[in-house]
Amino acid sequence: MSQVRKWQDAQTLADLGECTALWLEDRLDPIPARRPITFEGNTDKLRTLLVQLNRSGRLITVQAQPGCTDMRGGRRMGGVAPFQRAAVMGFMPASQGGLLSSVFSRHPGLTVRFEKAGLRTRRADIAVAADSLRQPSGFYGTLLSRHAIGRHYKGMSPKLIAALQGAFQVTIVDTEWGRNELIWPRLRRLAEMS
């Protein structure tokens, strides 16, 4: 089976999670019609956990980054060393919403959103990257409309697109720059739940 075909044959969020896990393991090309994404320095450390999360089918990750207060070993943006908040965005089956609530149970150090697609797309509005002057330079928190999901995943199976449109869109961001001790252990617990 061709690599493109494997993505196109995905029918469920679990199938998409398996394809994403294979891509994270460098065993599958990126999702068709997307720009290639690479792991750089500090993000590569998350790869094993992201594979586990996607393969569990509990959270299909779209974006993730560790918290850091400098970019040694990673990419510099605009020639300055930015600050990052640990953050992840993805899709979660509607049936798993209770699990997310129990694992992240209103921790004051985290911004947690899980929302269903609506009629309009909301732009990302949670700062997750900043330059050396702490001026925001990157954001998470986009909420895709049902229509935008259809456009974004064009070429994928209609059944998968319907599953994505009915899923929770999840954004989890640490409120403190550079901290990694809150999000990743909780996501590991989520992935390991039976």
Summarize the model shown:
By secondary structure, the chain is α+β, with helices and mostly antiparallel strands.
Key terms:
single chain; 194 residues; alpha+beta; four-stranded antiparallel beta sheet; three-stranded antiparallel beta sheet
- SSE order, one letter for each helix or strand: HHHHEEEHEEEHHEH
Radius of gyration: 16 Å
Mean pLDDT: 86
DSSP helix count?
A: 8
Structural class: alpha+beta
The side-by-side strand order for the widest beta sheet comes to 1-3-7-4
Shape: globular
- Biggest sheet descriptor: 4 strands, antiparallel
| Helix share, percent | 25-40%
Strand content: 15-25%
Q: What are the segments in which pLDDT stays under 50 over at least 5 consecutive residues?
A: 73-81
Task: Determine the N-to-C terminus distance.
Answer: 31 Å
How many E strands?
7
The domain count comes to: 1
Task: Report what the structure shows.
The protein has 194 residues and is an alpha+beta fold. It has one domain. 34% of the residues lie in helices and 20% in strands. It is built from eight helices and seven strands. It has helices spanning 3-8, 13-24, 41-44, 47-56, 97-104, 146-152, 158-166, 183-192; strands at residues 60-65, 83-84, 87-92, 110-116, 126-130, 136-140, 168-174. It has a four-stranded antiparallel sheet. Strand 5 and strand 6 form a beta hairpin. Helix 2 runs antiparallel to helix 4 (47-56) and helix 4 packs parallel to helix 8 (183-192). It is globular and about 45 Å long. The model is unreliable at 73-81 (pLDDT under 50).
